Amino acid sequence: MPLYSSNTILVKNIASLVSMGTERSIIELGKKSLLGKAKARPDLVKRFMDKAKKEGFVKTFQEALGRLDSPTPLGYSSAGVAIEVGENIHKFSPGDAVACIGAGYASHADYITVPENLCCRIPDRVTFEEASSGMLGIVALHGVRCARLTFGATVAVVGLGLLGLLTVQILKAYGCSVIGTDIDLAKLELATKLGVDIAIESSQLTAQSTLFTNGLGVDAVILTVATKSDEPVNAAVDIAKYGGRIVVVGVADIHPQRNEMWHKEVEIIVSKAGGPGIFDPFYEYKGIDYPIGYVRWTENRNLEEFLRLLSERRVDVRSLISHRFKIEQAETVYKDMLDNKGGPYVGVVLQYPEGSSGANNYKSLERTISLNANRRRTSNIQQAAPTVGVIGAGLFGKALLLPALKKIPSITLHTIATSSSTNTYHTAKKYGFEECTTDYKEILGNGDINSVVILTPHSLHAKMVCEALEAGKHVFVEKPLCIGVEELDQIMEAYSEVRNSTSSIPLLMVGYNRRFSPHAAKMAEYLSSRRDPLVLNYRVNPGFVPKDHWVHSKEEGGSRVIGEICHFVDTMQFLTQAYPVRVYAERASGNDRTIINSDNLAITLKFSDGSVGNIIYAASGDKAFSRERIEVFFDGNTIVCDDFRRTHFYLGGKISKFKTSSQEQGYEQELRHFFDAVSGRSTAVVNNRDVFTSTLTTFKINESLDKGEAVSVSL
User: Fold this and answer.
1) Residue 617 has what pLDDT?
2) Domains of the chain and any CATH numbers
3) Which among 579, 570, 634, 582 is positioned nearest to 608, based on CA atoms?
């Protein structure tokens, strides 16, 4: 059962539409071997090889497997009833009939959670079944808009599947003359019934189009085909008028004959899904709309318009629905479709029971599934043996930390919680958890669980850390601890209250893994007998991250200073065995677009033992160059660590080396240490002051950047 958030509404699906082409391609790609997937996406293979050169093959391969292993919910177009509404949602109320769109949201499932901008109220005259075609409708509508047509224009639609037939009807509703073409005679017949002016078999397209337009050519061609051939594009060039437009809505090879394009000055446009807003997290998830005066037709306003066309009977979806199945039949239906049985398929609707759409029925449903009914309960929260609940399972967690957790034999993986039902069930089965849930508070309230691992987005860390501490759990949270000073104060207060109220103090540890790397351990060994303060230089070449990425958002990621530079501050704390007392930082003064200024920094730290350290964080470097390099100068000696793969020790005129076969950044070691400390097998080497000081230091770095002066660091 999915858990809705403040920015989403919970919907009980009544109907969802199967997108044959898209869903078939997803399933077929998923069934391919690793080699098959590599052949299908050579662009990703290149990125993999570039990353492997820098960070090692094993680590990169693990990350790639984590991505490939993420289950993809099928479906992106549905309709149902709003059951619960998030506190930031004001357009909808429980009980509203809504059309929903979006991959990962409007899936084939009984219950879904959908952001505000990805759903609209269903008009009275439109059925749930009709409204479930919303996503396909706005894809067709946006394709029509991309053609920039005027009244009375003549348009050819190439490919009369579900998307093409919707496009034909939208064009007719907007006053265009429409030529439809396909190789399937049954689809040509259906297009004729739906109002196409002339339905032409593909082999006759050029000749018949010439006759229909009196030799002028069509104003636009909209390609709604799925093919690897370049024939549709070349045919479109042939029939287009001088200065005509070709809009690619489907998947077609775009390598037309240049001479004919040049001669006619034909324009090719690739339509992007349902319109402006698609894949923009600020628009789709946060609900930040584009001003209508600047962007008239967003994907949400396109959805409203498509529903209007349905309501006014300008578009007929019912005639396009060839099959209806109960959701319980879905597995058989997909198998038949993939095996080309039971067709021909045009519009396929999955139906859901309507009787359980009330809020009370929803609240009575379980959000937790037990995968091992024979587990033993101890109900002792501070028991020695670590019993673990994990909150969150994104790409990073599945690539590195969950595999590391699975390797630790001394712990019990009890429950995993994510907001996605598909993700939590799949991940729980793969890594051997006893239970899975979509409500993380099930973990906090479970007396069997004494340790919580938090792998959620940055913005959720502080809230969950406080709640876990208050529940008496040992807490391991992936960095950063939090993203704001107020949040840090709340965590420190929560930790203090727990420490003062119980004799058994929970551990709090942040995922600063580098201090647990074998390379860091070797460096610390050589530094343990030093006499003088250290001079450190930590150079980082992290790579460019686009300005609109969530990590730059103050509300979500905090910044790369908070989300990543915290690692390097902690590593310096570990090597010096001291705390920062003063920090000064400067950013580059670039255009803040191709070079994001706050991603190119020079930071100087002064430590309590007299040591000084520089962090050079340069996101504008070459990806082929090494990512991290640490240089330590002390007592006439030098230590250099390159990417946690090779460490050189220059001591007394002699050179010694320490190498590992791949990059060893300490992920598994940090988790083993945490659980050894929980069970009492070892003493924690990270204390609360380490955690709080490194976090505060990142905030002070940002303060120094803003003020342009050195800033003191003091808890």
Assistant:
1) 96
2) 8-19+75-133+281-351 (3.90.180.10), 137-270 (3.40.50.720), 368-509 (3.40.50.720), 513-712 (3.30.360.10)
3) 579
